[in-house]
Every structure is written in structure tokens, then in C-alpha cells.
Amino acid sequence: MNWMEKELALFADASNERYLRDSAVVPDNPGYTWRGNRVLLNLASNDYLGLARHPAIIDTIREALLTEGGGSGASRLVTGNRPLYGRLEEALATWQHSEAALVFANGYMANSGVIRALVGRGDVVFSDQLNHASIVDGIVLSRAEHARYRHNDMEHLKLLLNKHRDKRRKLIVTDAVFSMDGDQAHLEELVALKQEYGAMLMVDEAHSGGIYGKRGEGLCFKLGLHHDVDVHMGTFSKSFGLYGAYICGSRTLIRFLVNQARPLIYSTALPPSLVAGISTALTLVKADHWRRERLNSASQLFRSSLSDAGFNVGTGDSPIVPIIVGENERALRFSEALEAGGIAGIAIRPPTVPDGTARIRFSLSADHTPKELNDASAQICKIGLQLGVLSS
Ligand SMILES: *Cc1c(COP(=O)(O)O)cnc(C)c1O
Fold it and tell me: How much is the pLDDT for 161?
């Protein structure tokens, strides 16, 4: 095992070793987190709508836990498929105006399992260079050819579509909102290309579900493209404040996945109490439009204040706001200074982002007040000046 120490030393030399650190709940103060021995403003959580500690969700989970027990005991295809699942899936399909829905244990398993089910040897997957790692892993598992196109570069995608015209099945897959940049995919163009080339289109709404649309349906729905997306994926781990994921699509697709998606077949069903909690979270996601409004206006203000100060915040307009600083070490020092100043803002380094684009990734929540975000933004600018990320 000596090789491990050597590889770890290489990570450390490149300011790129990761550590697990405790983050604890701050009672009665949902926008904050304990880290080390301090309370920090939490600008590093994906609990966008502030639902993670919602009392109605907690009550549902507690009640279901008492009647249903802790674990589901088996895969859904064996004896783990409690009626709670079917009810949730019906509600999801209605919400998304799709024929059917299927719940997975998490987004990673949904993406990796579904892509593997849809394509295989002799097929091709066209995937944005900045797509989430779970999509990349699904492509690798599938053994289909991986045609990676430059980020949001539709000309490059077209070139690759032409090159692979003769492949058996073609799948175009993209994040709707990119997780480390907060910018959006060019969904209208992707739909046009999928139609032109006879490809399937899969969209991952992990960072847009709950956030866009009158009832939080997501970006595809907001743009009126939901009927043109063959495989709609979303998660319960971000704006729903819980854990789990879903696929929406045709009845045929869902029937096929029940037969072919290995994470569904070979893994134990989510705890029933959690499935009950997700149903309550869905009701709140649909009804509490004020959370979206609050989140989106806070995001715009926060982003423009950092951008006006001179930071490179990329081109997005979502609750994900990066400050791109370049070198790993610089991002780490920035993150440490933020922590000393009372803010949790995590350094994101390669391979999560391309080399030379290390960054601080802020993610906002409906829990934050405008005053908290104003103060945070002033503090971030002060640190940016001290570290030379901003010039005075
Ligand atoms: C977080 C994320 C996932 C994985 O979802 P989990 O439920 O956390 O496993 C998938 N895709 C994207 C774009 C994500 O950001």
C-alpha cells in the first residue's frame, strides 16, 4: 500500500488534498452551520429553498417512521415497494405533466443507472464537458462511446453529431443548470438538434428543479420544452432538502427502467419514512412560490454585487455563484479567510472543475436574509482585496 502515501503526497503538493470536516446544525438558525469551533453563514449548502428542517416534513417522517419502521428491507422489485412509492410517483408525474415517474435512491444512482440502461456498445453519448460526474460515470459504465462537447458549444456538438451519424442509438445529455458555474444549458438548441439527428435527450435538473417554474417544475418546464425532453432527471437532495432522485418520462421509458436500471434492481429501496417526507416536500415545493421568489431575488443581488466589485462570477443567473480565482492554492487561501471572517464558502478544485479554474462556489438559500447577504458580500470584497483577487 506504499503507493497510496506517494499519491496522497502529490495531492498535498498541488494544494489538492481533501479532508472530511464536521459541519453541525445551528439550532434555530437554519442559514448557518457549525464548522470547526465557529458558527458560519452557510453559503455552501444546496438546500436552496430552506426545506431541510421544515417542521411539516419532519413530522411526516417521524410519523411514517413509527408505522413503517426504519428500513424498507429489500429492493423495490422484491418486497421493498411500499404504497408510499406509487403515490409519490403519481404526484411527480402529475407535477411534471409526464406519463410516469420513477424514484431512485439518489441522483448519482439515477444518472449512472439510467444512462447505462439506455445505451451500450455501438451507441454514442453526447455529453457537455461540464456535466456532473454521475453522468460521466454512467457513460463509462455503459461502454457507449463518449463524445464530449465543449461547454455549451452547439457548433461542436453538431460536428460530433455529424461524425457519429451512423451509430445505433444516440443520447444527448446535459445538466440544465451547471453545478459549479450556475449557468444554463442551451435547451432550445439541444431540442432542435435532438430532433434533427434522431437522438434521445436527457436533462439533469438537480440544480433547477424546485427553483424555476411557477410550481418549481424546473427549467425545461419553464421554457415549455418538457414534452421534448425524453428523460427528465431531478433530485430530492437539493431544493427538496432531503435525499433521493426521480426520472420522469413516458410509460414505456419507466417500464424499461424497472427492467434495466441496475441501481433500482440491485439496491435496497429508500426508507419508507423518507419517501413520505419527500411527498410532503413536493407539496411545499409546489405551493411555496415565495421561497423561489426570495431565493431568485437574493441570488441576483448577491451575484451583481460581487460582479460589480470586479470578481469573475461567470455567466450564470442561478443561486450558484462562483468566484473563479484560478490557482488551487489561491482558492484554498480565499476559503480559509472566508471561514475566519464567518462565512462558509468552499474551495472547488480540479478534477471537479477544469485545471486553472479553481473557485469559491457560493450557493444561496431562501433561508438567507438580504441583510445577511449584503454583509457577506462586503466581507467577501474585503477579503478579495486583501488576497489580491480584486485590485483596488
Ligand atoms: C448533486 C448532483 C447530482 C447527484 O445527486 P445526489 O442526489 O446528490 O446523488 C447529479 N447531478 C447533478 C448535476 C448534481 O449537481
Answer: 98
Task: Tell me, yes or no, if 146 is annotated catalytic.
Answer: no
The pLDDT value recorded for residue 392 is 75
| Banded pLDDT at 197 (limits 50, 70, 90) | very high
CA of 165 to the centre of ligand 1 (A): 30
The answer to whether the beta carbons of residues 253 and 229 sit under 8 Å apart is no
Residue 238 is a catalytic residue: yes
Q: Tens digit of pLDDT for each residue in 87-132? A: 999 999 999 999 999 999 999 999 999 999 999 999 999 999 999 9
The structural domains of the chain, with segments of one domain joined by +, span 15-49+289-387, 55-287
174 vs 203: CA distance, rounded Å? 5
Catalytic (active site) residue 194 = no
Strands, sheet with 343-344, edge to edge from the N-terminal-most edge strand: 23-25, 32-35, 38-42, 343-344
Q: Cα–Cα–Cα angle for 127, 130, 134, nearest 5°?
A: 70
C-alpha cell at 381: 470584497
Residue ranges in 172-225 assigned as alpha helix (H): 187-197, 219-222
**pTM beyond 0.85, yes or no:** yes
Distance 108 CA to ligand 1 centre (A): 6
What is the fold of 55-287?
Aspartate Aminotransferase; domain 2 (3.40.640)
Q: From the CB of 318, is ligand 1 less than 6 Å away? A: no
Q: What is the structure's pLDDT at 28?
A: 87
Task: Give Cβ neighbours of residue 255 (< 8 Å, ≥ 6 apart).
Answer: none
Average pLDDT, the chain: 96
Which of 131, 130, 129, 127 lies closest to 144, judged by CA? 127
Q: Does 47 sit in the ligand 1 pocket, CB within 6 Å?
A: no
Q: What is the CATH number of domain 15-49+289-387?
A: 3.90.1150.10
Go through the chain and tell me how many residues it has: 392
